[in-house]
Amino acid sequence: MESVKLSVSKDRWEWRGGRDKVFSVGSVKNFLRSNVDYSNNYVFKWSKWVPKKVSILVWRAQMGRIATLDALIKRNCFNGENRCVMCGDGSETADHLFCSCEVASEVWYRISRWVHIGPIYAFSLNDLLEVHEFSGLGPKAKDILKGIIMISWWCIWRARNERRFSDKHKSADSIVQDIKSLSYLWYSNRSNCRDVSWENWVSFLVM
Ligand SMILES: [Zn+2]
Questions:
Q1: Residue 204 CA to ligand 1 centre (angstroms)
Q2: What are 83's strand-pairing partners?
Q3: For a disulfide at 23, which of 15, 47, 168, 207, Cβ 3.0-4.6 Å?
Q4: Angle of helix 139-166 relative to helix 102-114, nearest 10 degrees?
Q5: What is this structure's pTM?
């Protein structure tokens, strides 16, 4: 108590979480975050022409927050077999479904042929999200490829759900056809470059 100095002035509350002693919601946020280390977090930038539902799926998958069989078992929400329904081989994790699954590998091979780049080899989800950076394409084509990769995740996940819940089989070729048509629909309606024709799109003549 020796260090406490009392004065005759009126009592008042003082916010000590910020430098200027002024309380605000922002200063509370900064205070709460001040001890958290974000340096290892992967920062995923969304694509402007890709619908939010697709970005959200990719974002959640990248964080391991989609309902794969492996994730459900870990959370005690499923106690069956966790074999991938797409290839019948391997545990159904997000990494398997989008990277190492036989069907996904076939999709990535076909996408690389379509956009005229070398074969896509991905060992992790983050590798897939950076394919466009190392594709050797120009800025505009790079932006399109980034969106195409995201839409591919969307179409693979949709094909997985159709297979799992409706027993509808979709080949890699059919998934790629969906990717081409959906990406064209969204790019020609949502981007700043809406004059691309379907013929140029399927040949990836987008410069
Ligand atoms: Zn598989």
A1: 28
A2: 91
A3: 15
A4: 150
A5: 0.81
- Listed range (27-36, 76-85, 147-156) with the worst mean pLDDT: 27-36
- Separation of 94 CA from ligand 1 center, angstroms? 10
pLDDT digits over 115-163, tens only? Answer: 999 999 999 999 999 999 999 999 999 999 999 999 999 999 999 999 9
Cα separation, 83 vs 130, in Å, equals: 28
From the CA of 157, how far away is ligand 1's center (Å)? 11
Q: What is the pLDDT of residues 171-194, one digit of tens each?
A: 999 999 999 999 999 999 999 988
Query: Coil, helix or strand for 91?
Result: strand
How open is the CA angle 110-82-64, to the nearest 5 degrees? 70
Q: In sequence order, what are the beta bridge partners of 91?
A: 83
